[in-house]
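Contributing new complexes? Match this layout with zinc ion.
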Amino acid sequence: MDKEHKPKPRLPCHECDKTFARKWELQVHVKTVHLGIKDQQCPQCDYRSADKGRVQKHLRQVHWKVRDYHCDQCDYKGSSVSALKNHVKAIHLKLREYKCQYCDHTAVQKGQIVSHMRTVHLNIKPYHVIYLKSQIC
Ligand SMILES: [Zn+2]
Ligand SMILES: [Zn+2]
Ligand SMILES: [Zn+2]
Ligand SMILES: [Zn+2]
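Output block (do not edit by hand):
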C-alpha cells in the first residue's frame, strides 16, 4: 500500500529534516551544511577549492586571462606585470631608469625622457604651445 502520492521517493538528510530528489543534491547539502566542506569546482576544468573566492580567482587567471597585479607595498593594482614593476620602481624604489643626455632629468619610462628632450632641449613644442606663443607675440 502506497500511502504517499509522491511519484519519486525523496532522499532524507540524516542530520536534519530536509529531503532531496537527487542523491548528489543530498551529498552537496550534507557536505556544505553539516560537514562544512565547500567543494567549489571550476566550471571550465577540474580545479577544485574549498573557497569560492579562490575558484573565482582561478577562473579569472587561468581561463579569462585577467590578472591583477597587486603591489605588496600599497593598494596599487596593475593590469600587467610591467605596469606593476614600473610602479614599484618609481614609487617604492624611487628608481628612474632613463636619464636625459643633456641634463640631470630622469624618468621611469623612455617616452617621458624622449618628450622631455624634445620639449626642453630640442625646442620641439606641441602645437598648442606654438599657437599660444604666436598669439602673445
Ligand atoms: Zn541536513
Ligand atoms: Zn579552471
Ligand atoms: Zn605600491
Ligand atoms: Zn634634459
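Reviewers usually confirm one structural detail per submission. For this one: DSSP finds five helices and eight strands in the chain.
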